[in-house]
Amino acid sequence: MVGATTERATHHDTVKQVRMPMNAVESVLAEALHRAQDRGELRSGFNPVDGARFLTTFIQGIHVMGQARADHAFLQSAVTGALRALD
Predict the structure, then answer these.
(1) pTM for the whole thing?
(2) CA-closest candidate to residue 29, choices 50, 60, 2
């Protein structure tokens, strides 16, 4: 998805096709974060939609970094930081 988006960003049909699964990922994450919030697992004032957008963006970024051959320690540190953002 990242490759298609970056390489064909001006091609309307490509962007439309990529947007659908990304929106689906965001929706699933937002629902999971809403449930976590309902259970009291997220701090007060946490916005599940904003969190889902952050995570969707992070997932795509970590994919790019993995493709760029970032080492395991780098990727683990990035994941730790992303999870800390949810606290």
Answers:
(1) 0.80
(2) 50
Q: What distances in angstroms separate CA 15 from CA 9, 44, 57, one per listed residue? A: 6, 35, 15
What does the block give as tokens for 2?
Answer: 């990242």
The answer for residues whose C-beta is within 8 angstroms of residue 17's C-beta and 6 or more apart is 4
Write a three-state SS string for 71-86: CHHHHHHHHHHHHHHH
Q: For residue 43, what are its two tokens?
A: 């701090």
46: left (phi over 0), alpha (psi -120 to 50) or beta: beta
Q: How many residues does the chain have?
A: 87
The whole-angstrom separation of Cα 60 and Cα 48 is 18
pLDDT digits (tens, 9 = 90+) for 13-27: 877 777 888 899 999
The conformation of residue 13, written as its DSSP 8-state character, comes to H
